[in-house]
Amino acid sequence: MFRRFVENFDESSDEFLVKLKRQIAEGSDEAIVLAAELLYLNVMPLSPATIGVNRKFEILGSVLSWVSFEVQVPEELAGAASPGYMKGGQAFLNYRWAQFAFLIRLTQLMVKLPLAERESALRDPWRFRDLAESVLTDYDGKSRARAQFHVLLFLLFPDVFAPVSVERNKRLIRDAFADRLVEPTGDLDRDIHAIRQQLEAEHGGRFSFYDEPWRSRWEPPPPPRSQKGWLVRGANVDGVNAIPQWLAGGFCSVSFSDIEQLPAGASRQQVKDAVAAGLPDAKQGRKDVAAGQLWRFLSGFQPGDLIATVDGDAVYVGTITGDAYHDDSAGRGLARRRSVEWNPSPVSRQSLPEEAQAKLKTAMTIGELTSVIAALATNAGLEEQLTDEVLAQDETRDLIVPALTQAFADDLLMPLGWLQETADLLAAKRQMILYGPPGTGKTYLATKLGEALAGPDRTRLVQFHPSYGYEDFIEGFRPRLGENGMIGFDLVPGPFKNAVEAAEKEPDRPYVLVIDEINRANLAKVFGELYFLLEYRNHEITLQYSPDEPFKLPKNVFVIGTMNTVDRSVALIDAAMRRRFVFRALAPDRLPVDGLLRRWLERERLSVLPALLLEEVNRRLSDPDRAVGPSYLMTPNVATRRGLELIWTAEILPLLEDQLYGKLHDIEAEFGLPVLLDALGHTLP
């Protein structure tokens, strides 16, 4: 087995059992049984919250099925595998291959020892530990099986080694109880063993470092959790309005009567398993939504959070005061409960800000209201219970859009009036497209305008192209290579969703997303459900990859797109998209671009000849959509003969050749630099 699994490491992305079968299924029956025994050591300590009992035996049964005769897990071992004692994290599960390889290396080492030395090592915990530690290193020099190493020590010598699988936790325990050490050794396990003996003598028997009052002494406190706001619907619970009972009894509840009773603080996996068992015939999408809703009620809600419910026009607001509990005295539909201190005086729904009213329209049984709960609590007279974090997220506050300054306009060499009008249009519509021919400074202006309104840290630019899609812009699944070589998929937010999440944290400050060449992508494909939100910002929808998380477009997210008109692409934008954007033209013959090159040359104290050349080119083109913008010549290189000639031959003439393809036989004869200079009566210095 050492040769098949350890020496011939399988780096493919297949699942662990698939690779294991490929490596050892053709080996001897004895080797396969040994593999099952080692895997038993790996999965047995895991609690049901990590791997259920049935799954443990599925793993062992799969391996034992490769044996030519029937093998059963002995009854006493099967019983020991049921409870488990440790919660293995994702890293523990991902590193099963490394843990298995470690167990193989250790087994090989023990078998090679003379019998007397092997028996001595199995009696001496410290000798065994040293032997095990000597084979911890993986094929690439890393030690990924340390958790399995600590687990094995406890399983073999529970009176010596603590049931702690995370080495960092061992250090925290040793440091927290260092006052109990008479003579510290510097050996982590020996020091903890001495601490355990001292504490057992003091308290009269066995104890666990994970029980109180010991746990709180060594375990770092969890980071403080921000207050949240929640909506729970109760006006129609299995056909009955439960809100009067909520108000009278001081609680709220959710039904999910087909799903078994679950404890407060249940893990997501526990909830998913219970939903799968209770709704076996439901589609997966419905199961995911139900699991997300129920988990929020059991584990997402926290005492101190604010809560609201709606009964017609009446909105009741209260404070959650306790953990989830079960009380079926009023029937199963009201059995899953949370204690709530309700304000008995309702708030009129119509009196709330528009953003809050929109949030209350969610069809979900449970919805998050953190971004508007401040407005509800204030109207209900509960403003004293609001934390600074919730107040900072209040999206009902007025949006602060700064006025543009004359200094900003002078820097851009553009009229302040035109710029401020553009900013006002953007603030009113929230979506704008700057369009015009190449070189008119669309991207530069969009970025500068965004930075002036939102600041550089709140302005982002994304480039659209023909292969750009919904998964690139909003969110999509991306492959991830795990530490064990297996391929997984993560739901990764795109630049749009990242901008929304950032904007939600500062609802009174604009966030600007600049989309360069927006017309190069298939807009219907890229924007998807956002078509709706671009027009109805206060409404919530669900994204196709996040069906259990309502999504809305905050009022402080501004979108500025840029388009080239040289290919008549503006006309190709469908009516639905055009209706959602305000359009601003940047044309060489109109403000603010008209005369821009001349103003720049004068500011830089350069000859105005490049401006005269550009004006002559655009006069001969006589087509505003094909005109050449000034940015090609807004460079210090135009100050020299060589620099101007290079710009003309390498940038302007190729652009004109592309635009006039099939219409003009000899570009040089019409637009060559010598021809234009002669027409203007100028020569280059």
Automatic annotation (TrEMBL):
This is AAA+ ATPase domain-containing protein. Residues 428-591 form the AAA+ ATPase domain. It comes from Nonomuraea monospora. It comes from the Bacteria. It holds the Pfam family AAA_5. SMART domains: AAA. PANTHER family: 5-METHYLCYTOSINE-SPECIFIC RESTRICTION ENZYME B (PTHR37291), TYPE IV METHYL-DIRECTED RESTRICTION ENZYME ECOKMCRB SUBUNIT (PTHR37291:SF1). InterPro entries: AAA+_ATPase, ATPase_dyneun-rel_AAA, Methyl-DNA_Rec/Restrict_Enz, P-loop_NTPase.
